[in-house]
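Page 47, continued from p. 46.
Same chain as before, 197 aa.
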Amino acid sequence: MIAVVNSPDIDRSSESCAICAGTLIGVALLALAVYLLLGAAEGDSAHYGSAPVPSTSQVELPEGETDVYYAEGVEPDAGVSLAVPQDLDYSITDSAGQTVDVSFRGAEPEETDGGMARLIGSVSAPADGIYTVEVASNEAVQRIRPAITFGQSPLEAIQARFDDVVEALKGPAGIAVVALLVVLFLLPRFRRALASS
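Result:
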């Protein structure tokens, strides 16, 4: 009669697989957190569109709060500070002609793909839809591609990235991730079963 004894090597191997699975999950969660936080740092100041200054334009805005920026096509390295024109005036109306609430606030200028932008406020859209933006400024006419842009707040940028991850996991990538996790968790049991047979 042959007695089957669990080898310490098999136990160590099983423990090692469990640690690998836990480490992989931890690294994946850390990578997800970094990816989402980078979204906040790289929010798009013109994500929802722009309106040249001066002009009457239309932009499509989502329901809720959207950041409003003043942007110019100036080189960030030119050493020129981005100043909002003193006479800048803008209003936003919905399709029924009702004025939409705008709150005014400010922040330091930030570099964009087309120059620089400075946060000047936020608009609270009552619903998804097309909104009319009327912008006026005599001072801005002398500047390089002045515009009012509508972008994502850091929280919206994080939410958008999270939604992208969820959408990706609904497809083949999600199936591959689940399959990998199942293999990592079941591998120690398979090894034990093979060793005891």
